[in-house]
Amino acid sequence: MAYITGTASRSVIRRVPALWVIAVGLAALLAMSGCQSQPGASSQAGDAAQSNLPNPPAVTEAQVELAVGDGWAGYRRTAQGVIYSYSYPPGWSGDLAYCPSGGHESQAGYGIPAGCAVTDILVGRKASDLGRFSGDRLTIDGKDAIRSVDAKPRSGMASCIYTVMVYARDSSPLFGFSTSIGRGTDPATQQAITALLDQVAGTLHVEKQP
Amino acid sequence: MRVARRPTTDGVTVETTDKADRRSSVVGRPSSVVSTVTPSVVLLVLSLAALVFGVASTALASRPAPETGGLGVATGGILTTYFLEPINYEDSGDYYDQSNLLQYTNYTFHHGVDISGGCVAGVNPVYAAADGTVALAQYINDGYGSQVALDHGYNVGGNSHYTYTFYSHMGNRNSGQSYIMVTPGQYVFAGQLIGYQGNDGSVYGTCGPDPGTHLDWEIRVSDTALSYNIYMRYGATAASHDFYTGHQLTYGDPYPDASVEPGPFSGGGNPTDTPVPTNTSVPEPTWTPGPCGMLFTDLPDTHWAYSYISYLFCHNVVSGYADGTFRPGETSTRGQFTKMIVLGYNWTLYNPVYPSFTDVPFDSAFYQYIETAHLRGIINGYADGTFQPGNAVTRAQAAKMLVLSHGWSPFDPGYPTFWDVPPDNWAYSWVESAYSHSIISGYADGAFHPEYSITRAQLSKMLVLTLQQTR
After folding, report:
1. CB A115 within 8 A of CB A101
2. Interface pTM (ipTM) of the complex?
3. Interchain CB contact of A109 with B (< 8 Å)
4. A156 vs B: CB within 8 A
5. pTM for this one?
6. What DSSP string describes B98-159?
7. Mutation site for A-interface testing, chosen from B138, B140, B182, B202 by largest number of A Cβ within 10 Å
């Protein structure tokens, strides 16, 4: 599909109505279990829009179209027998890392700077290691999927960890990603990043290599 | 510590720690620490250790001494537990920086020691810090990524606790690869390879291709035995956090034997309440020689480059180091790679009377190999008349040398394959030629990174891919 190898366009999104359903569904889930580290932190889109992120998250169909279609790029790769692709927003790298502040290692050892996010790709053994975990059950790319947002990771190494896993027909873990958001990230930015990741997850296409 | 400087079978003079010296830390205090204490203290410590170990020491003593590493001793209320350093600084190569890279974590959120692995994941080995059972070996999305937990049992060093060590971020963030080399239930010995440093989990870095590569190493203790599950880390006290603050690894020594000298033990527990478990069924380590009898202690058959290195070993191209290692993660030098190429093609060695390069004299271990390669036009050296055999070989240099060695022509596809090797780059046609023959590839971001150095494992693969193609 066109957006797999190039920039996602509105026309492509329109041709894939399932993506709308997924994205909106994920956004709705976000509103219920958003990545908030402080009680009472707002999950309103308006708050998120005040963050420094490009294309702030949205929960409406129209806003989803704008967010996914506006400058998003495609990423496709084959790893350990799995072909996967997704679209990612401007300001992010293809491997789903984001750090507008341009943090440096020496600032906090290897800790992720506040406002930044890095992502683990989960295929093969790592996907199997994670297996099935508690979270929201979804359908992504026509396959069963689970999404979780850990708003208070026990390790304390991140302010929030977002994980999504797509499962094969036989229920074996096929592909997923787990994104850590740096400690000290303000709730609005956490919320915005999480919402963007929901949208990224909505563009996932995963298949086993023939 | 004795540090020996000796030539290896690869013709490289390296400093290595004498094995007997390392082994000494198993039964006593590490030499680097011994040198800092008085003899009377040593005697006291050893005497108390003998008393404390009691029955447990019987089980430990019944096993063959591990290659390296010791468990420790306790004196009164002070715990002084020694663990083997979980990495090999010799393998860390250029990444080892005594002043900077052995970082102590004094962050409130972090309970371990971060040890830099450079910028390339999957090349720097991680070793068990002490004997123990693998309790956990998997990826967990809690921030620590791919992690291994070792159970060292009760009363290690007489600490009256159950002690565990954790090794984290042992996977590749982008490729999804796990570098864990052990499985739950497996018994490992101090110094045994358990995996490679990686960068998954909540890790940040800026260098490439694998930013943030490092080992997060933690020691945790518990009053009760922990169940083996993904939450076990959080059921134990992060001893390392309390102990390490204000203390230092013995990184002043380039080859430290025992790396941790914790401070006063503040954990609870009564040293007389819990019986010391005995281990009567400790499996013996097995190690089967590979093809042609190849046996490198740091190259398990599961290593990604095992088949390539085996090929070269069987063709007498590589033979490893005198200490039985191959050091696959070590950066390869221009001299080493030149020798590998000459041996790989089995060229007749050329021994001219006068050297071609001012820094490769007649008595150099690389002399005839470099002269042979020079005679065949594979290498030219630098404008100042040197060859600089000890410098790391770069990806661009390796590409050129392999293309020339195999007799391929430089190639200009008209449009650069890699954005960072444009047509006006000196290596352009060589890199393109090497790429067209499938002996090299680029990175996911479309770059080639021509100035990156290459590890011995990576060069082995490139050379084998070249040698196996029709000339």
Report:
1. yes
2. 0.76
3. yes
4. yes
5. 0.53
6. TTTTEEEP--TT--SEEEE-TT-TT-SEEE-SSSEEEEEEEEETTTTEEEEEEEEEE-GGG-
7. B202
